[in-house]
Design goal:
mainly alpha, 116 residues, rod-shaped, 78% helix
């Protein structure tokens, strides 16, 4: 077996190869653990960004829908002939009547006003 190695030290030669194998195995486990950890962090970051993007798109769609609803209401009031005539003739009493009705029907609108 070990030609020039004394018999009492032969176990040391066998144990070195065992120790080397253990060290290689432990390094391989650490390398694989690091790889999987880095992969998991990357996946989590992508999921987090996708979730935030979905929330932002949802909020933007909600705001756009609300603004479109307000625009539709205002356009429907612009179709009132008496209201348009009162604005054209600068009759504040008649215009205020329509603005009050608008505010009463849609209380979520904070302020209703006319501007030139």
């Amino acid at each position: 077996m070990g030609g020039d190695v004394p018999r009492q030290f032969r176990w040391l030669r066998r144990s070195r190869s065992i120790y080397a194998a253990v060290v290689v195995f432990v390094l391989a486990v650490f390398a694989l653990s690091g790889f999987f950890f880095a992969t998991a962090i990357g996946v989590e970051e992508r999921e987090n960004l996708a979730q935030k993007d979905a929330i932002a798109r949802s909020v933007a769609a909600s705001i756009e829908a609300r603004e479109q609803g307000y625009l539709n209401v205002l356009q429907s009031y612009a179709g009132r002939f008496r209201f348009r005539d009162s604005v054209k003739n600068r009759d504040p009493r008649e215009a205020v009547v329509h603005l009050r009705q608008l505010h009463e029907r849609f209380p979520e609108m904070d302020r209703v006003f006319l501007a030139d």
